[in-house]
Amino acid sequence: MCTIKGIIFDFDGVIVDSETLYIEALLDYLKTIGIETEAQEIAYVIGQHVQDIASDIISQFDLDLSMDDFISESTEFYRNRNKDRNYPLLPGIREFLASCRAKGIRMAVASSSGYQYLFTILEKKDILQYFEFILSGRDLVHSKPDPEIYHIAAERLGIAKNELMIIEDSTNGVKAGIASGIFTVAYKGARFVQDTSFADIEVRDFKDIQI
């Protein structure tokens, strides 16, 4: 493997511990429409584009809702529930970012979440300055596990793929990373652990990532 010159980070479950809040909110939203289920039954949606989440949940529970209605209602429920929440950073991420910057490694965020959400939290957490750009999958044609978002991020960074690294935590995210041809690290420090056994490496601590 060549010297790493750039790292592309997923966001939820890699930079901030937000996936727990999302799954809890989705469970409570489903209760409002008469669906009782458990976290492990819907944890597979982590890392998916909002439209894919809507399609899968509607199909799974045979909901009498359009995709637009599900997205609108569940998103509003999540925002109202979590508008005053503090999204905690994952342990060690701030130190890892500082270390990467000190080594001259260029960094970007590529996430399925919306741009404003990503920008706001990065700014509030005072880590926005570490990243050259934020790429939201909601602005793209294809969502993870399609590698489109990582192809675009690599092109924008202008760094050869064999000199890049992706850090992901979800099954779909790791699939996208591997399909992009970029060395993909699966971070296993989030609460909801998915199958990422096909990643180039799996780590439970940012200190375990050798750069």
Protein architecture, described:
The chain has helices at 19-32, 39-42, 50-60, 67-82, 93-102, 115-124, 148-157, 171-180; strands at residues 6-9, 106-111, 134-136, 164-168, 183-187, 201-203. The protein has 211 residues and is an alpha/beta fold. It has two domains: 6-17 and 88-208, Rossmann fold, CATH 3.40.50; 19-82, DNA polymerase, domain 1, CATH 1.10.150. Strands 3-2-1-4-5-6 form a six-stranded parallel sheet, sandwiched between helices. Strand 4, helix 8 and strand 5 form a beta-alpha-beta unit.
C-alpha geometry = globular
- Biggest sheet, spatial arrangement of strands: 3-2-1-4-5-6
Looking at the structure, the CATH topology of the largest domain is: Rossmann fold
Mean pLDDT, as a whole number? 92
Number of helices: 8
* Assigned CATH architecture of the largest domain: 3-Layer(aba) Sandwich
Approximately how much helix is present in the residues?
Answer: 40-55%
Structural class: alpha/beta
From the alpha carbons, calculate the radius of gyration and give it in angstroms. 17 Å
Distance between the termini: 11 Å
Secondary-structure element series: EHHHHHEHEHEHEE
CATH class of the largest domain: Alpha Beta
Report the strand count: 6
Number of domain units = 2
Low-pLDDT residue intervals, each spanning 5 or more residues: none
- The CATH H-level homologous superfamily of the largest domain: HAD superfamily/HAD-like
